[in-house]
Amino acid sequence: MVEPSSSPQDAFQAETPAQKRALSYSNTIHQLFSSVMEQKLPADRIVGEYFRVHKKHGSKDRRVIRESLFAMFRWWGWLKQIHTSEQQDPSWFASLAIVAELEDHKWTQFSDAWREFANQAAEFNLTPAEQELTSLQSKCSWLQNALNRPSIAVNQLVPDWFWQVVDVAEDKQLAVVEAMCSRPPIWARAQTLNQQQLINSLKKDDITAVASEFFDDALSLGHKSINLNAIGAYQRGELEIQDLGSQVIGQICQPQADEQWWDTCSGAGGKTLQLRSKMLKQNPNATGSITSSDIRRKPLEELMKRAKRAGFTGISLAPWKSDALPVKEAAFDGVLVDAPCSCTGTWRRNPDMRWLDDKNVVLDKQELQLDILSRSAKAVKAQGKLVYATCSLSPIENEQVVNAFLAANPEFELQTLRHPFTQESVTMLTVWPQDANTDGMFVAKMIKR
Ligand SMILES: C[S@@+](CC[C@H](N)C(=O)[O-])C[C@H]1O[C@@H](n2cnc3c(N)ncnc32)[C@H](O)[C@@H]1O
Q1: Cβ atoms 253, 275 nearer than 8 A
Q2: Which residues contact 80 (CB under 8 A, 6 or more apart)?
Q3: Best mutation site among 242, 248, 265 for ligand 1 pocket (most ligand atoms within 8 Å of CB)
Q4: What is the whole-number distance in angstroms between the Cα of residue 268 and the centre of ligand 1?
Q5: Whose CA is nearest to atom 6 of ligand 1?
Q6: pLDDT in tens, the chain (449 residues)
Q7: Residue ranges of the SAM-dependent MTase RsmB/NOP-type domain (predicted)?
Q8: How many angstroms does the Cα of residue 260 sit away from the middle of ligand 1?
Q9: How many H helices and E strands in the chain?
Q10: Which residues belong to the active site?
């Protein structure tokens, strides 16, 4: 447990041990929240560093701190209307009590204490919800009443500029926000085993995995955080963590066992490994291969470690060192461009990013995306495939980039795709988080005539 700072102790009379701990947690959460907002660094990173230094926190402390902090960001669009100071004042305690209610946190002795501290100020008179708040609408109504603020509305939970850069009909906005305000499960991909073998293997480590209804190599590991390094299946490369939305990309690529693929923005290789796994599952002696590139060297090293863990050969590196193509022209059956983007599709897992970024995060990458796609396209053979993907939900980074590319490169033609979750026929496929409880993604597949 962290030491409480003197300021909240002085201001609020903590009498019981639970109240004292609640103050101490509040202090830590406030410190972390302020660091994220001031330094504009991802909450995951700030929390990770904090726990590395402050080893005295037990697993329960970590859970209360981490989940309350992330919940603060998830509901910040509402909370920022009441907590306008930078102090641990009653409105901060009210915010802590509110998120515990909205997310049905089970540490009621602490949330009760936060509510009592908040209610020391005349403006608050918070009471627990009378029934469980299951839908986003019920959460919104409860808060409107609890704070006596009828102006609180669902679409405030994402920044205003979000609606300017995504194209969501008004009647679908609720579903988008509802998904954004809940956590998706941890999705894994069966890499060297089949789905059932992996489920059995995980059972030995007391992990209950559930097969995805959509892909025969995908499974959900639920919502509890997992120490991957302690799991045998992970150590042996039998599984990789990969969001189900992200897995759509490899499904759309559909690499054949004898094909040559180039993953132009491979990062640490989430998609490279998926593509290679698909080839090897078709044929353990697959003659095809994957070349992986990135402008950053470190992730490529990580990719090779992951490939080694899985026992995969047939993957080689070709780092981008300049604008020149790091591979041969017209040499690949398939080229995947998983382009750098705003990552708005991953806001469910990183709720802080919606308050740290601004509209420019979506606007300022279009030129780079088109440039990478255009340069990468030179490596596609005749009749070869070119797949463009992002984890953005904005047409500015998605459809507009693909359309600009097609206008300048008429030898490429869009393919019709079946949306794996909704079964719609589309040429530009957006995975919305609410479709199948995933992150958001975009993918389009072109063929070179
Ligand atoms: C969306 S991430 C890739 C994620 C990765 N494909 C995966 O599945 O794990 C985009 C990657 O593009 C890389 N990148 C950024 N600018 C680039 C450029 N100009 N050329 C090539 N790669 C670039 C980034 O370093 C980052 O690793």
Answers
A1: yes
A2: none
A3: 265
A4: 9
A5: 266
A6: 334 444 554 567 788 999 999 999 999 999 999 999 999 999 999 999 999 999 989 989 999 999 999 999 999 999 999 999 989 999 999 999 999 999 999 999 999 999 999 999 999 999 999 999 999 999 999 999 999 999 999 999 999 999 999 999 988 999 999 999 999 999 999 999 999 999 999 999 999 999 999 999 999 999 988 889 999 999 999 999 999 999 999 999 999 999 999 999 999 999 999 999 999 999 999 999 999 999 999 999 999 999 999 999 999 999 999 999 999 999 999 999 999 999 999 999 999 999 999 999 999 999 999 999 999 999 999 999 999 999 999 999 999 999 999 999 999 999 999 999 999 999 999 999 999 999 999 999 999 99
A7: 174-449
A8: 20
A9: 20, 14
A10: 391
For residue 391, the CA-to-ligand 1 centroid distance in Å is 11
Q: Which residues lie below 8 Å from residue 400, measured CB to CB, with a gap of 6+? A: 366
CA separation for the pair 426, 441 (Å, rounded) = 14
Determine the 3-state secondary structure of 197 from DSSP. helix
294 among annotated binding-site residues: yes
What residues line ligand 1, using a CB cutoff of 6 Å?
265-268, 270-271, 294-296, 299, 320, 338, 340, 372
